[in-house]
């Protein structure tokens, strides 16, 4: 059977101050009246029932998630004691699914993507699951670039592998992570590269075997952890696993080294909602190309994103190309060119005792 695994452990720091420790990006209503996590769950429900959807997240936001998404049961949440990037999160989920169903097919999704139409994504997932059920393959979903984006990873296409319906599947030549502007432009115009969406399809055996082959130490630790699943000591086993494993992404740890990777060319609208600047691609703009969410008055202001989720009002007068956010007791004003670098400010906050409370 097909199982959904949603990775929801990130902090979403580039959406600070709206995204904070107690309310990270996956629990924000950025694009619609639903949280990003709820959007992700609802998107796959027509194909994967709720009881076969698992969320991997930080243990400190398990309670907020359960309070926000009433249909999600505690047994469907895998809590990480600390962040260790996507390889360990995926390995953790794979070991749990293998206990439930040794022939499980995993669909790995992120909790912070915009995807339209959802129906087409379901067709892509079904095609990938068809391959994963029969072959030892690691399948990625690649997106045809619509711009020269430097914030995304890229997949270089190799030989055409097969078609399933009107979907094209390719072997993969190489992965590139966040290229420079000139390189991104080359990729965009060459049409030989796809964006790496961070969505994957594979059997639990295929991904666990690949982790053991490419990352032997992590693979052995995961195998040891599996022996503790379902026992009274499971939490201690998990803490031990996370203390000993390195933090590394599935792309660096496995996909760049494996020889059995395929990519499905996904003809869908996809966006990794990575920073405040992403909102202008999907939110309605006024005549001056401003995006305004919440109570605000803009006069002689242009190309500016304003977000107010608090009491009071934001007044913008005679400015352009800014991001202005008011959330609780914090106001952020940043130039759009710096909006993606907000982590630098938060690093300073983390080192200052008086400012940590604002994280």
What does this structure look like?
The chain is an alpha/beta fold and 359 residues long. It folds into 2 domains: 2-272, Spore Coat Polysaccharide Biosynthesis Protein SpsA, Chain A (Alpha-Beta Complex), CATH 3.90.550.10; 276-358, no CATH class. It is built from 10 helices and 17 strands. The strands form 4 sheets. It has a 5-stranded mixed barrel with strand order 6-9-7-8-10.
Outline the secondary-structure elements.
Layout: E1 2-7, H1 36-44, E2 53-58, H2 62-68, E3 77-80, H3 85-100, E4 105-110, E5 113-116, H4 118-134, E6 138-143, E7 154-164, E8 167-176, H5 181-190, E9 193-203, H6 204-214, H7 216-226, H8 234-244, H9 250-255, E10 261-266, E11 269-272, E12 291-293, E13 296-299, E14 305-308, E15 314-317, E16 322-327, E17 330-335, H10 342-350
Parallel strand pairs: 1-2, 1-4, 2-3, 6-10, 12-14, 13-15, 14-16
Antiparallel strand pairs: 4-9, 5-11, 6-9, 7-8, 7-9, 8-10, 16-17
Helix pairs in contact: 3-6, 3-7, 6-7, 7-8
């Amino acid at each position: 059977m097909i199982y959904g695994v949603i990775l929801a452990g990130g902090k979403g720091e580039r959406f600070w101050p709206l995204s904070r420790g107690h309310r990270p990006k996956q629990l924000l209503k950025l694009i619609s009246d639903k949280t990003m996590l709820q959007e992700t769950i609802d998107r796959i429900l027509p194909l994967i029932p709720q009881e076969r959807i698992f969320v991997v997240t930080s243990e400190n936001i398990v309670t907020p998630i359960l309070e926000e998404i009433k249909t999600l049961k505690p047994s469907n949440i895998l809590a990480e004691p600390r962040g260790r990037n996507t390889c360990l999160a995926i390995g953790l989920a794979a070991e749990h699914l293998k206990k439930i169903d040794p022939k499980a097919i995993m669909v790995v999704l992120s909790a912070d993507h915009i995807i339209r139409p959802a129906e087409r994504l379901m067709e892509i997932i079904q095609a990938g699951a068809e391959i994963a059920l029969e072959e030892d393959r690691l399948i990625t979903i690649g997106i045809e670039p619509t711009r020269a984006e430097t914030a995304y990873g890229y997949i270089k296409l190799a030989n055409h592998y097969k078609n399933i319906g009107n979907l094209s599947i390719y072997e993969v030549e190489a992965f590139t992570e966040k290229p420079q502007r000139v390189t991104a432009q080359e990729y965009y115009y060459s049409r030989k590269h796809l964006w790496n969406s961070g969505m994957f399809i594979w059997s639990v055996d295929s991904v666990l075997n690949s982790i053991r082959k490419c990352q032997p130490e992590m693979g052995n630790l995961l195998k040891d952890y599996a022996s503790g699943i379902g026992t009274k000591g499971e939490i201690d086993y998990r803490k031990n696993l996370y203390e000993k494993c390195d933090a590394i992404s599935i792309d660096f740890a496995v996909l760049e080294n494996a020889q059995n990777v395929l990519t499905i060319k996904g003809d869908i609208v996809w966006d990794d909602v990575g920073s405040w600047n992403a909102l202008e691609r999907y939110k309605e703009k006024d005549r001056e190309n401003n995006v305004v969410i919440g109570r605000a008055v803009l006069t002689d202001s242009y190309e500016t994103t304003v977000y107010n989720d608090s009491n009071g009002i934001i007044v913008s007068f005679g400015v352009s190309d800014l991001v202005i956010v008011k959330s609780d007791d914090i106001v952020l004003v940043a130039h759009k060119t710096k909006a993606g670098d907000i982590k630098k400010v938060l690093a300073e906050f983390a080192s200052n005792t008086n400012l940590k409370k604002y994280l």
